[in-house]
Amino acid sequence: MTDERRGPSENERLANEIQREWSFKIARFPENAMERLGIVNLLLIALEVLLIVSNNVLPLGLWKSFIHDSSHYRDRFNKAVFDQTDGSIDFTKIQSYHLWKGLVVPSLIGVSAYVITAILYLRPELYQWKPDLLQHYGHLVAESRLGRWIPTKWLNYIFNLYERRHVEYMSNTIQPADRRHVALQDRVEFTRVVRQVAINLLISIFAISLMWIVLLQAGVDTQHILVLPKSYVPPVQGLVWYLINDMFYFYPHWIAHTNPHEQKRLQIPQSLYNILHKKFKESHRLHHRCKANIGIAAWYCSVAEQMIFNLFPALLGPVLTQVLARAAGVEKIWGTHLVTLYVWIAAAASSSVMAHSGYRSIWNDPGSHDLHHERAFNPKTACNFGTLGVFDWLHGTADKLPAEETRKWQGQRDRQAALNKAAKRSGIELTKEQKSIITQPVHDQDWVRKDV
C-alpha cells in the first residue's frame, strides 16, 4: 500500500465507508436520539413507563416508598421542633394544612434540582484553561523536591486526561473561551451571582407556599395521595402546563426586549405597552448583564423577574388544572396530583439551569436560549423568547439558526465517531485536525457588555 494511501486520506476513506454501514447507524442511533430528546424528556418518558407498569402490570411501590420515607423524616422533624416548644403551638392545626406535603417537600425538590444541576454544569468549566498552562505547572512540580517522589507516568496521565477533557469542553461549549460569563472570571462577580440566586431560591419557596394555599382552597386531594394518577393524565397535564408556562413566560419576555416603536411588538394600547415595556425591561436587565451563559446564573435576576418570568408561569398550570377540574366535577381524575406536581417542579427547575448552561452535550442542547442571550443586546435581532417555542413560532420570533447548528454539530459528532473507528481499523493515528473536527460556530462579532 502506498504512503499516500496509508496517510490521513486512508482514514477519511474508511470513515466514509463506515458512515454508510447500517451497523454504524444503529450504533449511533441511541446517542442521536438522546441529543434530540434531552435528558429531562428522557427521564419523563421513563417515569411515564414506570407509571404505566405500576397501574397496569405490577405495582412497583416506588411512590409509596417515597411517601413512607418522607413521612418518616416529617415525624423526626416534628419531634425535633415541636417537642421543644412550651405547648403554645397547636400542631394538630398546623398538620391540617399538610405543609410537609405541599410546602417542605416540593421546596426541597425544586431547590435541590436547581442546585444539583447547577453544580453538575460547573464541572465542565474546570477544563476551560489551555493544557499548556497545566503542562507548565506539571514541569514545575516534577522539578520540585516533592515531584521527585511522584511517578512521571502519573503526571503524564493527569495531563493527558485534562487535555482530552479540554478538547471535549472546547468542542461542546457554544461560546468560545474568550467569551465566558463574567462570574467565571471574577470571584466578586461569582459571589454576587450566588447571593442573588440564593435570594431567588428563597423567593421560590414563598411562591410554592402561595401555590399550595390556593391548591388547598381549590380542594386538592391530600388524603389519597398513595393512589397513583391514571397513566394518561400526567402526560396531558404536563403538556398543558408546558404550554401555559411557555405562554406566560413568552409575552412578558417579548415585551421586555421589544421597543414600543417596533412593528412586531404586541398589538396592545401604546400607553399600556410603554408602561409594561419599561417595567419588564428594568426587572429583566440584571439577567442580561453578560451575553455568555452559565447554568448557576439561570435565576440570576431581580426578585420581580423571578416572580413574573420564572415562578408565576411555572406554578400557574398546576393551580389552573385543579381549579378547572373541580369546577367540572372531575377532580378525582384530572385534579393536580402530588406526584405530578413534584416531577413538574423538579423538571422546571433543572430545565431552567440547563437552558442557561451554554454547554451542548448529548443530554442537553441550550443553543436556542444561548442565541437569545447573544442577540438580546440588539432589539432588532432579538429572538427565541419562549421556552417551548410554540409562541415564538406563532409570532415569528423563532430563529432557525440553533436547529441548523445542532444538525451540524450532530453531523460532526457522527463524523468524529466514524474517524475514530477508521483509525482503529487502519492502525493509522488520526491527525490533529481529524481529532478535533467538532466545533461551535461563532456568529456574533459585537461582543461587549451592554445593558438590555
UniProtKB/TrEMBL annotation:
The record's subcellular location field reads: Membrane
Question: Pfam families from the xrefs?
Answer: FA_hydroxylase
Looking at the UniProt record for this protein, which Gene Ontology cellular component terms does it annotate, in alphabetical order? membrane
Q: Does the keyword field hold Acetylation?
A: no
- Domain named Fatty acid hydroxylase: residues: 239-397
A GO molecular-function annotation:
oxidoreductase activity
The processes (GO biological process) annotated in the record are:
lipid biosynthetic process
Cross-referenced InterPro entries:
Fatty_acid_hydroxylase (IPR006694), Sterol_Desaturase_Related (IPR050307)
Keywords, A to Z, come to: Membrane, Transmembrane, Transmembrane helix
> What parts of the sequence cross the membrane?
37-58, 103-122, 197-219, 239-256
Tell me if Nucleotide-binding is a UniProt keyword of this record: no
Any idea what this protein is called? Fatty acid hydroxylase domain-containing protein
Source species of the chain: Pestalotiopsis fici (strain W106-1 / CGMCC3.15140)
